[in-house]
Amino acid sequence: MTFNNREKHFFKLAYGLAVFTIVYNIIEGLFALYFGYEDESVTLFGFGVDSFIEVISGMGIAHMVRRIKRNENHKRGHFERKAIRVTGTAFFLLAGGLVFVSIFNIIVGHKPQATFWSVIISVISIVVMWVVILGKKRAGEKLHSEAILADAYCTLMCHYMSIVLLLSSVIYEISGLGFIDSLGGLVLAWLAVKEGKRCYRMVKPENKYVY
């Protein structure tokens, strides 16, 4: 399969955005885990764990884009399928951990020490991820690739998690109600379960697209 210069440009865009997503999530995850631990915020800490799960997913996506460029109908390799399966399992483990810690915090009345960094990290993530989503959607539409469009959907879920983090942090700052942070953690758990289920649908042999 050969591609014209315009198509090659959008494949480079899709691959570049996949690599950027990996690097960005590593940096974001380190900050979120550190400040989530320091501020005792289950939502921010869970968001940080999700960032590293997205790194695993991003590796599979980058591999997928290269595969599609070579031959869209070529079957997925072992690495790509393994990355999807590990990502799905990680999302389910994250959801279980978030539910346990969030419920425990509600029972004992735990409150986060602060949510300043939660707001900063979530605002940056919302802006950055939205730009990345638009880029992936444009590349997917121009290449008529459902696989790349599905990658944009994956990034959209990360965008939703950023919004949950921002809302829970702002509401906590306004109300001072400690359980708001735990509720945010439960919402992240629900989103993680949705992503986990999607990953397991993606890994089915008959599904050649990451969708």
TrEMBL record:
Q: Mind listing the UniProt keywords for this protein, alphabetically?
A: Cytoplasmic vesicle, Endosome, Membrane, Synapse, Transmembrane, Transmembrane helix, Zinc
Record's bilayer topology term: Multi-pass membrane protein
Predominant subcellular localization, coarse grouping: membrane
Pfam families in the cross-refs: Cation_efflux
Q: Which family does it belong to?
A: Belongs to the TMEM163 family.
Per UniProt, residues of the Cation efflux protein transmembrane domain are 22-196
Q: Which residues form the signal peptide?
A: none
Membrane-spanning residues where?
A: 12-37, 43-65, 86-108, 114-135, 147-168, 174-193
Q: Which domain of life is it from?
A: Bacteria
Q: What's the protein here called?
A: Cation transporter
Question: Where does the record place it?
Answer: Cytoplasmic vesicle, Secretory vesicle, Synaptic vesicle membrane; Early endosome membrane
Q: What is the source species?
A: Salinimicrobium gaetbulicola
Query: Which SUPFAM superfamilies has this protein been placed in?
Result: Cation efflux protein transmembrane domain-like
